Amino acid sequence: DSGVTQTPKHLITATGQRVTLRCSPRSGDLSVYWYQQSLDQGLQFLIQYYNGEERAKGNILERFSAQQFPDLHSELNLSSLELGDSALYFCASSTKLAGEVGELFFGEGSRLTVL
Amino acid sequence: AQSVTQLGSHVSVSEGALVLLRCNYSSSVPPYLFWYVQYPNQGLQLLLKYTSAATLVKGINGFEAEFKKSETSFHLTKPSAHMSDAAEYFCAVTRRDNYGQNFVFGPGTRLSVLP
After folding, report:
1. Contact B35/B50 with Cβ under 8 angstroms?
2. Most B CBs within 10 Å: which of A101, A106, A110, as the mutation test of the B interface?
3. Which residue from A17, A57, A69, B22 has the highest number of Cβ atoms inside 10 Å of its Cβ?
4. Å from B24 to nearest chain A CA?
5. Which residues of B79-93 are buried (b: 16+ CB within 10 A; e: fewer)?
């Protein structure tokens, strides 16, 4: 158990719909990362938050948005869903503060299926 | 910019044989390198990490990796493969940053272990 909790584990929805994925990082971790994993694209970095502020953006579509709340949990919002958005979405958190280096701890992912 | 390449999207070895998974990185600053493993339907788990201490890093489950700056490589090895090693392996590079880190993952190598 990595200590990172993601909900829901599985989600099936229709095209055009909107979903919210939730992530609770490990206790004390300030950084939260979101990744998308699909068969054809591999593990793609979406976005990173550090203590409530956006710090880095990767290949995140404009239809997607995220935020990190004061209690450090994070939500990834996916809207106007398309078939190609079907993927496994991972949240990861990192324990290290500024100037240090630490590993990412991954949740078990949220599997999204868009029909 | 940092990048990671993993030679061989799929590697097959016999049980008891040497495992060698290749990782080469590109980084303009001293890198920090990681190997993660992903078992089916699970999140990524850290195998080992290099953070500028010893160049030969030992990880869990008998895996180890050697950082070779001259070759910009961080190959993962295990002397004797076990059936339970069958999984997807990801190499990742990051650098020290003021607000956390920017992790870049390789495309992954799927390891099959044949009886």
Report:
1. no
2. A101
3. B22
4. 17
5. eebeeebbbbbbbbb
DSSP letter string, B62-113: G-EEEEEGGGTEEEEEESS--GGG-EEEEEEEE---TTS---EE---EEEEE
Copy the structure tokens of residue B36.
């993660």
Residues in chain B with CB shorter than 8 Å from the CB of A101 are: 32, 51, 94, 96, 101
3-class secondary-structure state, position A85: helix
Residue A2: left if φ>0, alpha if ψ -120 to 50, beta else—which one? Answer: alpha
Mean pLDDT by 10 residues, chain B (115 residues): 90 97 89 92 91 88 94 96 96 74 87 96
